[in-house]
Design brief:
By secondary structure, the chain is of the alpha+beta class. It has one domain. Helix content is 27%, strand content 26%. The strands form two sheets. Strands 1-2-3-4 form a four-stranded antiparallel β-sheet.
């Protein structure tokens, strides 16, 4: 039986953040206090996205994201979207494998990723 799932992403898993960075070839996230534009700051895991002037910072306790890409002038939204997709896939794979499922991943022509799960406990 097939099921379609839509996921609202809250970034709460540091290991999945690290895995998403590896998947995308990004440097490892840095934990701590990070300065954003005009003295604004955020605490959490900072991810340096390609072409972004400031990092995207994810608070893994609350799931919140803090970033300033100045409506695309300081970084393309697509780069954040790619990261969130990679994070979601990594988290879904981890949770599925933890539940005893085997996971098959397929990149679709439109850029979305299809995960097929088999087995389970």
């Amino acid at each position: 039986m097939s099921h379609i799932v839509q996921i609202k992403t809250e970034v709460k898993d540091a290991a999945a953040v690290e895995a998403a960075c590896r998947r995308l070839g990004l440097e490892a996230p840095k934990s701590g206090h990070h300065v954003l534009f005009a003295g604004q700051s955020a605490d959490g895991l900072a991810v340096n996205l390609p072409g972004w002037q400031y990092p995207a910072v994810f608070n893994t306790e609350t799931g919140a994201a803090a970033y300033d890409n100045y409506n695309g002038a300081w970084g393309k939204q697509e780069e954040l979207d790619k990261f969130l997709q990679a994070y979601t896939v990594e988290k879904a794979i981890y949770e599925a494998q933890k539940g005893g499922y085997s996971v098959f991943e397929e990149m679709l022509p439109d850029g979305s990723i299809k995960l097929s799960l088999t087995g389970g406990f």
